Fold:
Amino acid sequence: MSDIEIRDDRAAGRLEAVGDGEVVGHIEYFVLESPARALVPVHTIVETAHEGKGIAGSLARELYAVSEREGIPVAPLCPYVVKWAERHPDVAPTVDPELLEAAKDWLRAHPGRF
Structure:
């Protein structure tokens, strides 16, 4: 497999890892608008044939890089991203609990979204 390219498909709410022309993994997310703007990852998925290659970690790292570039926090609901952030506090700042609760409320209010 060639190098993995990570692209942000904001309209679809997906950060995608692409290798050899196919999507081999992605993070599904939404953009919370209130009480403050935040990126909210909900699921991280890597195709079985591509597991163990660091793709999920690369996706999480890029999500936090997007967050930094845009100046908005990440409020992770995805269990993988939560664990990744705990292991990488240098690039994944702790989120405000109020923002995390707002993200959970949004997700409960949109049950068919994910």
The longest strand covers residues 22-32. Residues 43 and 49 are 18 Å apart (CA to CA). Strands lie at 5-9, 14-19, 22-32, 38-46. Residues 55-70 form the longest helix (16 residues).
